[in-house]
Design brief:
This protein is α/β, with parallel strands linked by helices and 516 residues long. It folds into 2 domains: 36-115 and 139-249 and 462-469, Aldehyde Dehydrogenase, Chain A, domain 1 (3-Layer(aba) Sandwich), CATH 3.40.605; 253-446, Aldehyde Dehydrogenase, Chain A, domain 2 (3-Layer(aba) Sandwich). It is 41% helix and 18% strand. The protein has helices at residues 38-57, 60-76, 78-89, 93-119, 156-167, 181-193, 208-215, 228-241, 263-275, 292-307, 328-342, 375-378, 394-401, 417-425, 461-466, 492-506, 509-513, and strands at 4-6, 18-22, 29-34, 122-124, 133-141, 144-148, 171-175, 201-203, 221-225, 245-248, 253-257, 285-291, 346-349, 365-368, 385-391, 411-413, 433-434, 455-456, 469-477. Strands 13-14-15-12-11-16-17 form a 7-stranded mixed beta sheet, sandwiched between helices. Strand 2 and strand 3 (29-34) form a beta hairpin. The protein starts with a strand and ends with a helix. The chain binds nicotinamide-adenine-dinucleotide (NAD).
């Protein structure tokens, strides 16, 4: 059964398509949403552009006060928001509250507080012959930012880029995933309830077609979070229009467990890092390399901890693992596990769909005897699987960690923090954590994004915030006079002087004094 179903094709000529949405944990029908057409999206972008005029002229303090009203509305309505997330995604209530609702308060507060510091005009001291001029960098908003988001963290991954884009002075049109549209609509409700001026933050609903309409509809930037395949299409479409895009894509994150790791912490970290949100986390631990010296106790503890997890539809807040959110994910997990087992992997626990429930539950699965010939080690599974490979030493772990077309995050587990940092630096990934897991996205000072096929650009941190601006440099001549030396006329004397000046400027103590 598909959890997002096309309602019968509309009969009236201009009626919109409608999608019916179901809860993946209980299969209960949640409701229907309209699919916004290309015209609807274009109209939303036009309204957004009109709203941009006033919004971009507000002071940082005024924009921050609006964002803090959104946060306070969120705190007041936290249970209702968590319930909507739970319905759309099938995740446990505590997880919805902790990793989406509570987690959203931090970026809102953080960017409301820090945007002015990072985006105010910056005077840049100049060197060499340019010392006689003055340079000021201004971070100008881009205009209308289109934000397209996935279903795995439908609330946090929508509100976080939206707040950054808005604090930078842009207006936003958000297209949430068709799998979790009610979370997107809840966001629109929150922004409206917080009194954000009309059309500054809008939500359009629908599937890939609506997303494509947003990308092609005249936005000034696209901020996309989702799969590599869609990211590629968006990059192509943005390239044709010469508009920038940030692409936050998939991952296949490695975890390296050294012989001197705190094994209890590493085992707990592996279990949460792999099974949190049923493994549907872009930075979830997707493959583990443990050195042979400590492999046995580590694997035994991981299996013990996995067997303690409670899976099922949320009833009274006691569920650790919810359902998968997107049913086709089940086929991918099944295919990866079967491929691994066919090629010699051993299932230590789990390895099947949970027979106790009708909803889309896959038992948390630990595998050993895995190799890089298996899909589970090469592709993103995005499910509750934890394949563990025993390696000779750290050098082999590093080589295997880097044998990937992805490069989002990674983790290293060792008691030696210096070694941890050194190993982390050798992993080709946008981020790495030492003795920790899944934390990088939540740390707002840290730019977040991938290398290789995991994405282009960064969100979060100063770098991420600045990616919602174009930097305008304003250079002012400090000294007047009729003209500059490099202007017309060109003369033979000027040519000779220039030729002599090169050595003076770049190979003499005078040049050094000038900062060359
Ligand atoms: P997806 O690419 O299928 O869909 C993401 C969004 O793109 C949805 O809103 C969808 O409607 C829209 N879309 C689909 N086709 C489009 C098109 N042609 N033009 C414009 N928009 C289009 O991804 P998904 O299945 O929703 O999400 C899961 C993926 O997201 C995983 O690969 C996961 O790793 C990745 N992800 C990455 C991050 C990150 O920060 N790097 C975070 C979360 C999820």
């Amino acid at each position: 059964m598909a959890l997002v179903k096309e309602v019968d094709a509309p009969r009236e000529p201009h009626a919109r398509r409608r999608l019916e949405v179901f809860n993946p944990a209980t299969l209960a029908r949640i409701g229907e949403v309209e699919v916004d057409s290309e015209d609807d999206v274009r109209a939303a972008i036009e309204r957004s552009r009109k709203a941009f005029d006033d919004w971009s002229h507000l002071s940082f303090r005024e924009r921050a006060s609006y964002m803090l009203k959104v946060r306070d509305t969120l705190i007041d309505r936290a249970d209702e928001v968590a319930e909507t997330i739970m319905q759309d995604t099938g995740k446990p209530c505590t997880e919805a509250l902790m990793m989406e609702v509570v987690a959203a308060c931090d970026p809102i507060t953080f960017f409301a507080k820090n945007a002015e510091k990072w985006l105010k005009d910056e005077k840049k001291p100049l060197h060499g012959v340019f010392k006689i001029k003055k340079l000021v960098l201004s971070y100008r908003p881009m205009g209308v930012v289109g934000i397209i988001t996935p279903w795995n963290f439908p609330f946090l991954l929508s509100i976080n880029p939206a707040v950054q884009a808005l604090m930078a002075g842009n207006t936003v049109v958000l297209k949430p995933s068709e799998v979790t549209p009610f979370v997107g609509l809840k966001l629109a409700e929150l922004f409206a309830a917080a009194g954000i001026p009309e059309d500054v933050f809008q939500v359009v609903t629908g599937d890939g077609g609506t997303g494509a309409a947003l990308v092609g509809g005249g936005c000034d930037k696209i901020s996309f979070t989702g799969s590599v395949a869609t990211g590629r299409k968006i990059a192509e479409a943005c390239g044709r229009q010469l508009i920038p895009c940030t692409l936050e894509l998939g991952g296949n994150d490695p975890m390296i467990v050294c012989a001197d790791a705190d094994l209890e912490r590493a085992a707990n970290g592996a279990v949460w890092g792999a099974f949190c949100n049923s493994g549907q986390v872009c930075i979830s631990t997707e493959r583990v390399y443990v050195v042979e010296e400590v492999a046995k106790p580590f694997i035994e503890r991981v299996v013990e901890l996995t067997n303690e997890l409670r899976q099922g539809p949320e009833i009274d807040g006691d569920s650790d693992l919810g359902s998968l959110t997107f049913p086709p994910q089940l086929d991918i997990i099944e295919r990866h596990v079967k491929d691994a087992v066919d090629k010699g992997a051993k299932v230590l626990t789990g390895g099947r769909r949970n027979p106790a429930y009708e909803g889309y539950f896959w038992e948390p699965t630990v595998l050993t005897n895995v190799t890089h010939e298996m899909q589970i080690m090469q592709e993103e599974t995005f499910g509750p699987t934890l394949p563990i490979m025993v390696v000779r030493d750290e050098a082999e772990a590093l080589r295997l960690a880097n044998d990937s077309r992805y490069g989002l995050s990674s983790s290293v587990w060792t008691r030696d923090k210096t070694k941890g940092k050194q190993l982390a630096n050798q992993i080709r990934a946008g981020a790495s954590v030492v003795n920790d897991c899944l934390t990088t996205y939540g740390v707002m000072e840290s730019p977040f994004g991938g290398v290789n096929e995991s994405g282009v650009g960064r969100v979060n941190g100063e770098t991420g915030l600045k990616s919602y601006c174009h930097v305008q440099s304003v250079l002012t001549a400090r000294i007047g006079g009729k003209r500059e030396y490099n202007w017309y006329p060109y003369t033979a004397k000027k040519r000779r002087t220039l030729r002599r000046a090169m050595g003076l400027l770049y190979r003499s103590p005078i040049g050094k004094l000038l900062g060359n």
